[in-house]
Amino acid sequence: AQRVTQPEKLLSVFKGAPVELKCNYSYSGSPELFWYVQYSRQRLQLLLRHISRESIKGFTADLNKGETSFHLKKPFAQEEDSAMYYCALGQGGSEKLVFGKGTKLTVNP
Amino acid sequence: GAGVSQSPRYKVAKRGQDVALRCDPISGHVSLFWYQQALGQGPEFLTYFQNEAQLDKSGLPSDRFFAERPEGSVSTLKIQRTQQEDSAVYLCASSIWAGNTGELFFGEGSRLTVL
What we know:
The complex is a heterodimer.
Chain A: E1 3-5, E2 10-14, E3 19-21, E4 24-26, E5 31-38, E6 45-49, E7 60-61, E8 72-74, E9 83-91, E10 97-99, E11 103-108
Parallel strand pairs in A: 2-11
Antiparallel strand pairs in A: 1-4, 3-8, 5-6, 5-9, 7-8, 9-10, 9-11
Chain B: E1 5-7, E2 10-13, E3 19-24, E4 31-37, E5 44-50, E6 53-56, E7 65-68, E8 75-79, E9 88-95, E10 105-106, E11 110-114
Parallel strand pairs in B: 2-11
Antiparallel strand pairs in B: 1-3, 3-8, 4-5, 4-9, 5-6, 7-8, 9-10, 9-11
């Protein structure tokens, strides 16, 4: 069965510190991985997807098929990065996404 | 409007009542999704439409849940004989592509509380 695991429910770092939000997935096919973010009082929105290989707001994520991981990283966290982050798995040929339970990131001043 | 619009934003129902939640997707978006998000959980897939066709309803938790999108635009999620465990935020999302995992655009959600 397809499954996404985000082991940390809460993550707290200081401004300027590196941050890594972990995501592991379980899927036998060719996965498509996404990170969605929900800022306070805003709707859920796409942050980045693995196929684009781009950096958004300083965040990057690399798909590691050997470790079945798609961790989200940023070298220097900012206060405005505080939000809920959800890792999501797409299954090739289907638009359906399976979401993890989310990690609440707090960046302290 | 430019984004996905959902109504009502908040709904309180007594156990046993029927409720209807509406989603107005972004104009021209082919695909429409409903997700259920319980407190402290991630969004859980309920059902998926491509235009007016309901292609996947594997996530609907029981036959009390019913969704439709008769003209391939606005969608309604109906819950009959609501139970306390139905309390959650119901998210609607749309995407422009069909048959490809593209970006999902989410609405603000409808928060249902069943007393």
